[in-house]
Amino acid sequence: xxxxxxxxxxxxxxxxxxxxxxxxxxxxxxxxxxxxxxxxxxxxxxxxxxxxxxxxxxxxxxxxxxxxxxxxxxxxxxxxxxxxxxxxxxxxxxxxxxxxxxxxxxxxxxxxxxxxxxxxxxxxxxxxxxxxxxxxxxxxxxxxxxxxxxxxxxxxxxxxxxxxxxxxxxxxxxxxxxxxxxxxxxxxxxxxxxxxxxxxxxxxxxxxxxx
Length: 211
Known about the structure:
Blueprint: E1 3-8, H1 12-23, E2 28-34, H2 37-43, E3 49-52, H3 62-69, E4 76-80, H4 85-94, E5 99-101, H5 106-117, H6 125-133, H7 135-138, H8 144-154, H9 159-166, H10 170-186, H11 194-203
Parallel strand pairs: 1-2, 1-3, 3-4, 4-5
C-alpha cells in the first residue's frame, strides 16, 4: 500500500513539482495539495505524512499549523527555503519531524520523506544550525510528551514501566526515545546510552542529580 502524502504550499509551481517527485516513487502518492493547513484538513481521508511550507501567504505560523495538523496524527516535515531560522525553531518546538530545503535535489526529498515515514527524524545541518543559534532552545527542544518519557526513562524506569505510567505502548515509548536521541544529536549533545540520556535530562532540569 502506498504511503499517502499531503503538501501544504502556496506556490502552485512548487506544489506541482514536489507532487511529481513524490509520485515518481512506487511507494508514495500525493493525495492532497493545498495552500493552507485548513484546506488539507478539509479534504478528509487518511494522511501518512505532511510536507509543510513554513511561510504561507495566509499569515499562519508554524505552531498554529502544527496544532491544526495534529488532528491527522501524521508526522510533519518542514519543506522550506530555510531563510528564516526563527520559523525553523518554532516548527521544531511545535513537533515537526525535521526539515528539508526546497533547493535539495529530488532524491534527497524522497529520502527524507521515507525516513520520516519509517519513524526517523531529518536532522540536516541547516536544522541543527537553526536550533543552536537559539541557546534557550537547547534546553526546550523536546515536546511535552518527549520530556515526560525522558524524565521517567532517564530516572531508571524501563520502557515497559514508562509505558504503563503514561498509558502508551512500549513501541511508542521506544519511538519517543529514538526521536529524543536524534534531537539531542542534532544540537551536538549526543546521547547514545541511557547514562547519556540521564545527563541530558539533568542538564535540562527534567530530573535531579542524586547527591
